[in-house]
Protein 1
Amino acid sequence: MQDDICDDGRVTDALPDFTRLPDLALRTLGGAVIWADDEAFAEQDNLINPSPAAFQPATFGHKGQVYDGWETRRRREPGHDQAIVRLGVAGVIRGVVVDTAWLKGNYPPEVSIAAIEVGGYPRDLA
């Protein structure tokens, strides 16, 4: 790990080295969230938003308060919330950032990540 300067000017050593590598899921590279089982409170596309988390009170959309993360309804029965993220470019996944900064009391105790390589995608544009 190496010291980083946060957006607000604080210096932190909390960011792992993999965060300096290219983001393979960026929309500008063709990345997308192609499926999610729940978008009750916030859009699935927020899963790959590279911007730092922010909260703006009293900003309302068609689903209520606008959030910049992916927030699902609280689960009352066993199960998991799931999403499928298509990477925009091929590469080796060295890490995944799961930011729960604004999910006060409503965050997952753990996450699980699985990956699969699908032949023919992404296409070689060379």
Note: The mean pLDDT is 80.
Protein 2
Amino acid sequence: MTPDAQILAAIIIFIIAYVYAMVLATAILKYNIHYTCMVNSPRPLHTRGQNYYIAGHKGPQPNCLVTFWNLTHIVMYTVLGILCPDILPEIFMMGILFELYEKKKYECHDLLDIVYNGLGLAIGYGMHLTFCT
């Protein structure tokens, strides 16, 4: 895929993710898997905003290392790493800017999402090198 096509793909994926996270999941999909803890932490974490679950549900924080939402970050950024290998730094920066937006606008951020985004990009890039070249 050309760099221009990769930019377009990334923009489309980010728009879909934004609509899903800020509109669909908060309005339609309340009180289900979105509030599930996938991996517990032995100690409380203090990386999430007060409105981490923007719809008002309190969920499995603060002793949850990986929530369903964190897992969606890993999956989305894995896809981006596979499809957009030439613009990984730009994608990573967009993820950081989105987390800052979530913090400022909604107080629904999780600072660990930046780590999970990077992990997803690394997995995706590795898969791209393994299967697409």
Note: The first strand starts at residue 37 and ends at 40.
